[in-house]
């Protein structure tokens, strides 16, 4: 910031110098001397002409004409030379006022249209880079806000502009892309980080997570290879196992999904909220594995997507619920799923009923709601993201965009 202000001072001083040059070059005394010399020459020349005219008999009263010529010469002398007080500003005063005007006008215009506030905000955000980076890398129960993600992205892009070989910087930018569901930014940033440091397990995991967001099956295959490589190297943490399990479930490899979810259960205690979530995931996979079928026309197929800018904590769960058409808050049926991959397609049926004696198949019209629970407590909603459908017919495919947040 000091360099910026120094540069502005240098530019303004240069402008003042340009304005001052014409004023410094002006020489009023020289101008007066030149005028006097011209007047004397004119006077002498006119006297000579009068003498010639008098000799030729063309002038009747030569003395009167000489008196008029002297008076004309006297009238051309400035008042300051005749002892009268001058009324104009001195050259130094004009110079000082001109330079003051340049300085005031330059900084005044910049303050109003020069984006000073934006520059100051940018400097403040850049200074917060370590703090925001730490919060992003720490698995906290409180996800980063949309504004914090924007600030961190700006600070990172500034740093990467000057340090393009910073692998950790690209990793963080990729994580922001993942949090914002921006697949292009996530994949491009993680790929650059991976090329710089392909041996880092953290970068391998981030790259795999970004590739899982892609719509290209080749990217998914590459992600699976990275994740399996991490398992072979002994880096099978909860996030690695969760990505593998969910990918297996999505590809109807239910036995494999159950195996990895059970591994995750062994890494957490029964008191952990994630333990019960894993139990439900395993039960859902076992149900699919047993070949239980939903009856055509009484199931609710739902596709849930996230709006751009929605941030999801890795430990969050997706709650999808079916409600009566009048919007009653008490769901007829509901189910929980890991909030690890979006968009996600699910199907609810009578086995997901919440009210005894009340089934989805009893409904003709319904509303479906989707919510990301970030703290494991269904009764608390503050900070959770959600979305819901319009009133639809039973059996009609439903698309829900999660784009609102409880205040």
From TrEMBL:
InterPro entries: C-type_cytochrome_biogenesis, Cyt_c_biogenesis_CcmI, Ig_CycH, TPR-like_helical_dom_sf, TPR_CcmH_CycH
Keyword field: Cytochrome c-type biogenesis, Membrane, Repeat, TPR repeat, Transmembrane, Transmembrane helix
SUPFAM superfamilies xrefs: TPR-like
Domain named Cytochrome c-type biogenesis protein H TPR: residues: 118-275
Residues spanning the membrane: 6-24, 93-113
Signal peptide (residue range): none
Sequence ranges assigned to domain Cytochrome c-type biogenesis protein H Ig-like in this UniProt record: 301-403
Subcellular location field: Cell envelope
Domain of life from the UniProt record: Bacteria
Pfam family, one: Ig_CycH
Protein known as: C-type cytochrome biogenesis protein CcmI
């Amino acid at each position: 910031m000091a360099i910026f202000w120094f540069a502005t001072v240098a530019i303004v001083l240069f402008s003042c110098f340009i304005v001052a040059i014409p004023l410094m070059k002006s020489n009023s005394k020289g101008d007066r001397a030149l005028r006097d010399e011209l007047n004397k020459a004119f006077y002498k020349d006119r006297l000579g002409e009068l003498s010639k005219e008098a000799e030729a008999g063309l002038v009747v009263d030569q003395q009167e004409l000489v008196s008029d010529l002297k008076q004309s010469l006297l009238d051309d002398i400035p008042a300051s030379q005749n002892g009268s007080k001058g009324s104009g500003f001195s050259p130094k005063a004009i110079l000082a006022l001109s330079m003051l005007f340049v300085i005031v006008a330059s900084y005044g215009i910049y303050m109003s249209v020069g984006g000073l506030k934006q520059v100051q905000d940018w400097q403040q955000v850049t200074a917060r880079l370590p703090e925001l980076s730490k919060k992003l890398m720490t698995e906290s129960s409180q996800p980063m806000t949309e504004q914090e993600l924007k600030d961190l992205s700006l600070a990172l892009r500034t740093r990467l502009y000057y340090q393009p070989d910073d692998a950790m910087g690209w990793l963080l930018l990729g994580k922001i892309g993942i949090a914002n569901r921006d697949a292009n930014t996530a994949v491009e940033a993680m790929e650059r980080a991976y090329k710089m440091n392909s041996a880092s397990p953290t970068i391998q995991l981030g790259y795999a997570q970004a590739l899982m967001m892609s719509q290209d099956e080749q990217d998914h295959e590459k992600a699976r290879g990275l994740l399996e490589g991490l398992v072979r190297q002994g880096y099978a943490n909860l996030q690695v196992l969760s990505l593998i399990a969910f990918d297996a479930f999505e590809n109807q490899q239910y036995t494999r999904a159950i195996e990895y979810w059970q591994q995750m259960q062994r890494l957490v205690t029964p008191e952990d909220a994630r333990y019960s979530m894993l139990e439900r995931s395993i039960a859902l996979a076992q149900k699919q594995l047993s070949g239980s079928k939903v009856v055509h026309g009484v199931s609710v197929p739902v596709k849930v997507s996230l709006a751009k800018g929605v941030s999801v904590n890795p430990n969050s769960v997706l709650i999808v619920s079916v409600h009566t058409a009048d919007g009653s808050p008490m769901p007829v049926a509901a189910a929980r799923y890991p909030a690890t991959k979006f968009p996600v397609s699910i199907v609810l049926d009578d086995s997901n009923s919440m009210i005894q004696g009340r089934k989805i198949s009893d409904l003709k019209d319904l509303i479906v709601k989707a919510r990301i629970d970030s703290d494991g407590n269904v009764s608390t909603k503050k900070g959770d993201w959600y979305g819901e459908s319009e009133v639809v017919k039973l059996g009609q495919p439903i698309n829900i965009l999660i784009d609102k947040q409880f205040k």
